[in-house]
Amino acid sequence: MENPSSKPATIEDVAKIAGVSIATVSRAIRMPEKVAESTRKKVIAAIARTGYTANAMAQNLRMQRSKMVMILAHSISDPNFPGILTGLEKVANARDYGVLIGNTEANIDAEEKYLRFLATGMADGLVLLTGHLPVAGWAKSPPNTFPAMVSVSKPVPQEEISYVGVDDENGAKLATDYLISLGHEQIAFIGGPQGDIVSEMRFQGYCNALTSHFKRSSPWRVQGDGSHEGGRAAIERLFIRDTLPTAFVCYNDDTAIGVISALNARKYYVPSDFSVVGFDDIQFASSMVPSLTTVRQPRIMIGERAMNQLLDIIATPDTKPVKELLHGDLVIRESCAPPRAGGAL
User: Which UniProt keywords apply (predicted)?
Assistant: First the structure.
């Protein structure tokens, strides 16, 4: 055992000596029946060598549950985050739980550090707003070894993880259907980051609308990155072409704002020259000029449903995973109109 005067051992020390992941050490302490005997022995030996177990295990035995939940967010500056957090906290407070927020900024090391709250019993479950499992090794772990967790807004690839979010596919179809109802046929989709699952689902909804209205649908996709600047850059690439669309379905509102800004810079006007639809209905969407037609996410409801699911899983670990898609509403404002006479510019 280490010298009492030295720096207290951490779960990382145990994992390093045992040659396993932090998540495995956590499971060995909190759910030993779900860890292979050979692995459990390695962890026990490492715990004995470091002296780590005293505080962590005593706390777990004393408290049983921490009554706290860890929320991992890609970025708390995401305009969708405050509404989702409101819903999460509302339900957590009503069920006597508190929340801890981890702002990862897509940093894997930061994610693993935040997981100490789970590993040491300071948090009972995890809300993921990152779109991936926070520890690479978890993806290859048996589903029954995962801690209690729910993915929100962006699903993780593992079907064993419950998910709550807006129906991205149907929402994008609603937006495209609306443009078609105004008479638009040449409609471009400005996508999100390369490989982003939400962007892919929204693109599929756009394609579904084209297919349902036109015998020969020709999807028109331009790559963006989900930002204002990505929307501007997409328009600049489009204007290199000989033909242009008459309307745009955008991955999100930030992209749509960039599209409108780029069109204005070229002395075109929305909606008289081009129509633009966003997705999310962020706060700025209603106050910009022209006000933005968009698909509104039920952010607070998403947070409420997700927290209820997570706390149910914590209370009953054998709860089956659920995929819950909530309806997004098309909010019609000033950024769309019938195509100008003569069609595309």
Answer: DNA-binding, Transcription, Transcription regulation
Mean pLDDT for 66-74 is 90
Please report the pLDDT score of residue 67 as a whole number: 87
What residue spans define the domains of the chain? 1-63, 168-297
For 294-336, write each residue's pLDDT tens digit.
999 999 999 999 999 999 999 888 888 899 999 999 999 999 9
Residues 242/335, Cβ–Cβ less than 8 Å: no
pLDDT at 339 over 70: yes
List the beta strands (DSSP E) in 16-133.
Answer: 68-73, 98-103, 125-129
Residue 114 C-alpha from the chain's centroid: 17
Residue at 197: amino acid letter = I
Say if residue 221's pLDDT is above 70: yes
Instruction: Say yes or no: domain 168-297 is CATH 3.10.410.10.
Output: no
Phi, psi (5° rounding) for residue 172? -65, -35
Looking only at the bridges linking them, the beta strands covering 162-166 and 275-277 are unpaired
Distance CA 210, CA 186 (A): 10
What sections of 151-216 are H helices per DSSP? 168-181, 197-213
Which tokens in the block code for residue 201? 């689902």
Cβ-contact 261, 232 below 8 angstroms: yes
Handedness of CA 193, 195, 197, 203 (dihedral sign): positive
**Which of these, 125, 124, 123, 119, lies nearest to 28 by C-alpha position?**
119
pLDDT, tens digit, 9 for 90 and up, residues 198-216: 999 999 999 999 999 998 7
- Alpha-carbon distance of 161 to 150, in angstroms, equals 6
Closest-CA residue to 111 (of 97, 98, 92, 129): 129
How far is residue 52's CA from residue 143's CA, in Å, rounded to a whole number?
27
